[in-house]
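Researcher: Let's try something more involved. This one mixes different molecule types, so please make sure each is placed in the same coordinate frame as the others.
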Amino acid sequence: MRIPYNWLKEYIDTKKTPKEAAMLLTSIGHALDKPIVEEHQDFVLDLEDRGNRSDTMSIVGIAREFAAATGEKLKFPKLSIIPTTQNENFKIKIESDRVLRWRAVIYKNVRASDSPKWLKLRLLAFGLEPKNTIIDITNYVMLELGMPTHAFDLDSFDEIILRQAKKGESLKTFDGGTLSFDENDLLASDSKKPLTLTTAVGGEESGITTSTKNVLFEAGLYDQPTARRSALRLNVRNETAARLGKYLHPQYCELALARIIYLMKSVCNLEPELSSFDYYPNKPEDRTIELTKERLDLLAGETIGLGQAGKILESLEFLIEGVHNEKLIVKVPYFRTDVTMEEDVIEEILRIRGYNLIPSDLPQKPSPEVLAFPIMQLEEKLRDILVNLGLTEVIGLQIQDESQLKALNLVTSENYLVDNKSFKAVRLENSWNEELNTMRTELFTSLKGYAQTYLKHQATKISLFEIGKTFYQDPKKTGFDKYIEQRKAALLFLQKNSDQYTQFLSLKEAVFKALKQLGLDKLSIINAKHSLFKENISANVLCGTVSIGSIGIIKQKICSFSDLDGTTSYAELDLEQVSLLQDQSFLPKTLTSVKNFIIEDITYTLDEREEVGPFIEKLSKEFQDGTRVLLKNTPYKDATLSKEHKKKVTITVYKPNFT
Amino acid sequence: MEDIKDNLSKILTEAKEKLLSAKSLKELNILKLNFLVGKKSHFNTLTDVLKSASKEHKAELGRNINLAKNQLEEMFLSRTNDLLLATDESKEWFDLTLPHTSPKIGHLSPDTQVIRKMNSFFIRHGYSVAEGRDIEEDAFNFEKTNLPKDHPARDLQDTIYIESPEILLRTHTSSVETRILSSYKPPLRFVVPGISYRNELINPSNHALFQQYQGVLVDEGISMANLKATLEEFAKFMYGKDVKTRLRCKYYPEVEPGAGMDVLCSFCKGEGCRICKHRGWIEILGSGMIHRNVLEKCGIDYRKYSGFAFGMGLDRIIMTQFGIEDIRHLHGGNLVYEDTL
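Model: All components are placed in one shared frame. Result:
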């Protein structure tokens, strides 16, 4: 809210400079948002809007706060008496229960001319363009009191009906735009056509022009959510919509009209017709709140006397209706629609007294029991392990481009996961970017982006990892339960001119080392198809018999599509599974006495496609006396062996020497 | 069979003699080739003999050969050590500046580094590090955080929906606060780092996905004074012990009373400059006493327990610490550590 400081000073006597005033207002909850500027013979303090306060979207509202903080007295603007309510004299029908109050008066034989200089300067200092006396007075009152009002050209319609719009109705607004309504919008119309979107903007036809002779001024309040939603949907963002979207007390209708009548007299020397209109079906009840000393002292963290509390509240126009031993009965002023409970009252006391006076006192109680989130501990440990293995952590976006997932053949055209057709990708209903519309189903898409960047930096050997979530939905379920989040760790190795087996084995080594350090045992690899991987280098990582992730070499097609120029190996681990299988008490075995071994190399001839891993495992099971069995060197084939589809494997056997 | 055994002992005796007479490592290497590792070495020849041996003798022979081979290897090792000891070390030369060829070092992401720094402070003060879901229900993201359906503040949090109006991407980590307050009994102290989502246009200083950090403490007798001291200590930890802070009244729906914390702008010392947008102070976090409605909706008796909560965006802090100018580089795939290249 822009506050022209000289305007503010009409309502309070203060010698404070604009900067001092801004500091004071900031300290009580109205923070200066932008630098103070000098404009139109005034200094403008641009203050943050407080989401819960309707009363401080006005110069008088801020002046009232200023007065409370400095002990000054607020000089409320002068008001005139509104003519007696005689609704029968008006052709006005209210047909919607979303109208909370509608108050109107009529002026005849007006001349909408140029406003006086002082009025124009005030509006200009705020940032509104002066139009003519009638419109300028309504705008002035809106800025001064915070209550939007509207002036109709009385001769432009036959009656006023306040009603919800019919779908498809439209209105040409005073500023040249066209709005198209639905049933949720609230209109003022006549018997034929809409006149205004009454919660936000006036129409061109019923607006005030220099030829206007007779005017109806109205001050109306409506259901706030209706006002906000209309403004949002129709993209009407103006001072009226901003104010009517908040909970203003219906009393403001009275004040605004009384102020308009005063200004019409002083600026145009005109009096209203002798009757007024007032639709006011439900007057809100006055609100009283009990403030206990116990609660005040507890939240403040110190003892504040009820006497001092009462004085602060009175400075904010709260009424102390009763004082009991340890509590105050406080009546909330009508304009403070935000104050509904004891804590709200306590905030008032603390902020006007000054948050700087709140003592500093660290919580003294012993720390409570630690909340266990084992997966977070696992992730932290894994991060350290992977960094120590030379990998660098990256964090990518959780939201991905659906078309890219389809192009990579990770999801089907119906959004099912190619690797698990019982799950679908999670699509967003709305997004800031049309392309980014799907929650990621794997971490590859974000890691590949980083790998591309490394390649642009001419890196030749890349080792990256990401720890984060992937998202799916189970179409067999409904509601919230169908959405699944999985915590994953992904590792990506890329090396230019590297052969794929070396690349695979070095990633496998990193994965196994990391898992072992996390306390997982009995790790192995089993061939399994994955849509990311080349068919013959694609596997699951097993811990015992449980699959805990996948590993393989990225398909050439995907690499080319993703501009990954190099052999790329990739592994993704399901951290929830890892966490379940993790032996938290795992400690590496220690030896304190030296064992003697008889070391022997044995060469075996195997079928060329026989897997060496299971072969060694089987071999070590055959020895049961603590014998270590290790692969001596990579399998060997010469021309003869190749012809026979055989290979040779040399194993070193360390047999304990018990003699 | 016996021939081979004889042969083995002959080889060992011969080797012993020759080893003792070897005067240099070079000589030793030649001997090693002849006896042990060369294609035509004595032992390779023996292995060929083994191939033609009968099945019944094969196992015993193999063992004998291996035993002899092990003995010989030990003899070589011991002679090598003797020769090395006799070498004049002052004449040795190594190029110690030769660069190592092992893989580059790895780093944690900037996010993790900043989150860990903050966690370390709060863990020291007895807080647990907690986590929660990204896909959330309206109930935990809005209703229980004191943002009922028609609350004006909902308009400020432009929400990304999965299935409107009930299932969405969390707009703040307060959803984790309400999850935990709803399922654990006080006293509670925890922090929650995590990505939050808003349907906002992105530009160099604003992103739809952002790192948030939330802290919560609920216990008997918790006050604004406890909140103030905690935040002041935290600010000193993050910005140095001389940092100047101020707490001022600010509105957040999930707390009452609410407070924003500012630190004095270190560039202009409060005079106002471009960095602090001419305010003199830089807002670092929002906080306050947890709203009675939040405690009640999470099943906590607000008469017995009170608590405070605070929350902050981490992106700005991460960007400042790592010299990143555009927020889109944080998670967009563009960020590279120079020394990992």
